[in-house]
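Chapter summary example.
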Amino acid sequence: MKAVIQRVTSASVAVEGETLGAIDRGYLILLGVHESDTEAEAELLAKKVVNLRVFEDEDGKMNLSLLDTGLSCLVISQFTLLANTRKGNRPSFIEAARPEQAVPLYEHFMEQLKALGVKEVRHGQFGADMAVSLINDGPVTIVLDTDTWKK
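The structure predicted for these 151 residues follows.
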């Protein structure tokens, strides 16, 4: 499972001009599900996300986590994070999980965020053509890949 975590002052997602999810401060999370991912990866990633310390404390140091701050998440499905660009110039997405596998894992990831204490978890619409808007704070952008924790 891959995620791009962006610390934001605000973020929203719309489909066909209708806003489906919006947050103020917190994380915009772009989430890609690999065909080999299981609930274990979703749980591992959720734990890392909620405990990642990239919010500033009273001394201006990045010492606080999402749980410490009580901020929100906007989670967007993003199969293109699984792009394979090793050959040629046209990305291959063959390693991205099919919707029948990806949707339950995407939902499980969001459920885990809530179970771990994130009060507000918003989301887009899986498989839709979404318009995502954000104001990146910092900017702080972190890429997480559960495969790197297995080695």
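To summarize the output: The longest helix spans residues 99-115.
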